[in-house]
């Protein structure tokens, strides 16, 4: 059973609670680490909001982030809905509407976003178009919402009404191989990548809405999601989290269960790197891929920092829990930085940088759900934010920022 299917069973009250949700998070407050060197700048930025889904309580929680410190305080929580289990989350670029994917109810809740960030449910949730919807993403134009359906093995696409936020299905859900889980759309909006943990593969699509129908990658496309040549491609056992660099040249995928050859045989898990064909979206392995750590286990998520210099892979727990690599700009190869991996508190639910590029947040499977670090974009240095970890009451699943 894949990580995501096991998690679904746990949310539904079945057996098979995944090891990731049993991880013990040990907080090492005040510890600092660097990825590059130890210099550090004082963050500056505006206060802003964020949101997290809380599957156990069936709700979405408003978070308020202090732009000067990165500290998080909790705001209003939406009414709890039994048997909803919201997981995926997506915020419209206009910040008018927020979408929460309800994995148990097989629906998508639409929330109106007030000026103060509070949420109000808009009408009856929309059917997700598949079984056990998991992750969601909105294309850069803000016109379409894409949702992976973990148990029906497909991806649903919806058009978004800009005035009301209402969703309308665009054709039938598109087959996405077994166990589609995480989903990413490139910054240009041309290509979509989905991980298939049970297969250890990545499924690739060209994104072909009407405004892109004349693009070369959409030639002959009969669906808004057109399979990319050679898809799916093998990544590694348990392939789950994925990230693309700012240039859209390289895709990185976390393989939490992959075995490694000597001299890394004691390390479980690695990071696959792929070249992205700019014309077709096809994936080919980066020379030297997969990349791994000297020690550690189970990197579940991967993210590229805002400067585009570093790749972070995170694992549940606090021992050897954050792997850090520099990106070789010429070929996308990953080189581990000095002292990586770092033994600080992390988690396997989300890993993302705030819009200002100052702060790095990691989701942990506990009531103290968010680990926070300040981030220096010049050096990659991380330092624990005062007050971290920040409580969300119950374990969060996904997080999005309001800007």
Give the tally of structural domains. Answer: 1
- Taking pLDDT < 50 over at least 5 consecutive residues as the criterion, the unreliable ranges are 6-34, 36-40
CATH architecture: 7 Propeller
What is the CA-CA span between the terminal residues?
36 Å
Mean pLDDT: 88
- How many strands? 32
Helix amount, in percent?
Answer: under 10%
Spatially, the strands of the biggest sheet line up as: 1-31-30-29-28
Corresponding CATH superfamily: YVTN repeat-like/Quinoprotein amine dehydrogenase
Main CATH class: Mainly Beta
What is the C-alpha radius of gyration, as a whole number of Å?
20 Å
Q: Work out the helix count.
A: 1
Secondary-structure class: mainly beta
* CATH domain fold name: Methylamine Dehydrogenase, Chain H
Backbone shape = globular
Q: Which quaternary structure do these chains form?
A: single chain
| Largest sheet entry | 5 strands, antiparallel
